[in-house]
Write a structure and sequence with these properties.
By secondary structure, the protein is α+β, with helices and mostly antiparallel strands. It has three domains: 94 residues, VC0802-like, CATH 3.30.2130.30; 88 residues, Alpha-Beta Plaits (2-Layer Sandwich), CATH 3.30.70.2510; 97 residues, Alpha-Beta Plaits (2-Layer Sandwich), CATH 3.30.70. Helix content is 28%, strand content 37%. The protein contains eight helices and 15 strands. The strands form two sheets. Strands 5, 6, 7, 8, 9, 10, 11, 12, 13, 14 and 15 form an eleven-stranded mixed beta sheet that branches. A hairpin with a 4-residue loop joins strand 12 and strand 13. The longest helix is centred in the N-terminal third of the chain and has 18 residues.
């Protein structure tokens, strides 16, 4: 296999040069016949070597070094692309690594984010928005943290801030997959919500005004977790409709707090009247 290193490097370099994408760093991987890997494993075990992947690592290193010399691109442990070459067939496949961009966003309509439009604007195959918020139908009127994952990007530039339809994006910095996992911890940050609640029957105004005493400072059960309600007000704006202002621990199911599905106690349960959340805005988060 080692006699193929120079030829493999030239083919990888040629394939990389023909790509119609922007990149500055790369990594090389190799696919070897199963019988060769098994033989290498046996030799490693007999020699008490620390790893059974020695031949692959050495081939990756040698081919990568040659490719770097040919292309001038930098071999990196955190690459923009990965070139995988099968030996001895010398067929090459390219994996374009995603870009992670951390910033903030606001969503001005109660609609799911326009991910297709984001992909077109940022010249990527697809876009995923990682956010602690779970309700894609809510307006987000305060700055909420987000990490955009751009898959198969043709450019390595960070997304430009601005307004895309009803989505306002701000202040992007480079991030990583690890940052996505850390972002999930933001789900517990306090948030303020405003919503409209519709009741099956008109509730008594005195019943609505009594709800804060029953829920403020209390913890409600949501599955296996407990979430605290910090502040709650319901203001009647019709016989069967009330405006709700809620501040609570993040991650609370506002819909469940209203209708009682998966959350206890709930507004519906305490009033003894079926209630439904019909609109929701996220006003801010700590």
């Amino acid at each position: 296999m080692f006699r193929l290193v120079d030829e493999a490097a030239k083919i990888v370099a040629s394939t990389m040069s023909s790509l119609d994408i922007e990149f500055s760093t790369f990594q090389v991987g190799t696919m070897l016949p199963r019988e060769l890997l098994d033989a290498d494993l046996r030799l490693s075990m007999e020699a008490a070597a620390p790893s059974s992947e020695s031949i692959k690592r050495e081939l990756n290193r040698l081919i990568g070094k040659r490719v770097q010399s040919i292309t001038g691109k930098e071999f990196s442990k955190s690459p923009d692309i990965v070139a995988v070459i099968a030996l001895p067939s010398l067929s090459v496949s390219i994996i374009v690594m995603p870009i992670y961009a951390a910033g903030t966003y606001r969503k001005l309509l109660r609609s799911p984010p326009p991910l297709g439009d984001l992909a077109s604007r940022f010249n990527a195959g697809s876009v995923v928005m990682h956010s602690p918020l779970r309700d894609s139908e809510a307006r987000v009127l305060g700055d909420e943290r987000v990490i955009l994952q751009l898959s198969n990007p043709r450019s390595r530039q960070l997304p430009a801030p601005g307004l895309l339809g009803f989505l306002e994006l701000r202040g992007f910095l480079r991030a990583s997959r690890r940052d996505v996992e850390q972002l999930k911890g933001d789900i517990d940050k306090e948030r303020t919500y405003r919503g409209l609640v519709m009741f099956k029957e008109p509730p008594a105004p005195s019943s609505l005004s009594a709800l804060p005493q029953l829920l403020e400072g209390k913890r409600v059960r949501q599955g296996r977790r407990m979430k605290q309600v910090r502040f709650l007000r319901l203001l009647p704006i019709g016989e069967r409709v009330a405006e709700m202002v809620l501040r609570s621990e993040g991650g609370i199911s506002v819909e469940g707090l209203v209708d009682g599905v998966g959350v206890s106690p709930s507004i519906s349960g305490l009033l003894g009247i079926q209630a439904k959340l019909i609109q929701l805005d996220v006003l801010d988060s700590d």
